[in-house]
């Protein structure tokens, strides 16, 4: 069961946690969301590492929903941290350690995605440069050296970002 969310009248201020039961529900829900999000991130990391980029799109809706829940719950924990630490110190410490583990695994996922992005960008730039080189006339300049292709020698490469 999800903890209470900010009211529509005042979305910026999350409601304070008033009972130990609410605090336990919030901590439990955030722990579940982090565990589920880690599963999705690990799957995404494995798909990207194995080069199966087209399969990543199928897990994106679940990843987005879990990220939304994580942000909402993390905001509630941040707003009620002092109460949570006093009311449930052991559970709050476990949540904190779990969050540190979550953060470390998230960094690995982000590094894998950044590497895939850089490799993809390099491939596209290389292909665009090769197309421009082949489309440009092969002439020599006044110095006797081959002229570099003009920037307008080849139209830009269009890439669909949709997986």
Key terms for this structure?
163 residues; elongated; 64% helix
Strand-helix topology:
Blueprint: H1 20-49, H2 60-79, H3 81-87, H4 89-135
Structure in words:
There is one protein chain. This protein is mainly α. It has one domain (20-135). It has four helices and no strands. It is elongated. The model has no long low-confidence stretch (mean pLDDT 82).
Task: Offer a concise description of the structure.
With 163 residues, this protein is mainly alpha-helical. It is built from four helices and no strands.
Number of helices: 4
Tell me the domain tally: 1
H/E element sequence: HHHH
Specify the biggest β-sheet. none
Helix content: 55-70%
The assigned structural class equals mainly alpha
User: Which radius of gyration do the C-alpha atoms yield?
Assistant: 25 Å
Spatial gap, N to C terminus: 33 Å
Net shape = elongated
User: Which band does the percent of strand residues land in?
Assistant: under 5%
Low-confidence stretches: none
- Strand tally: 0
Average pLDDT value?
82
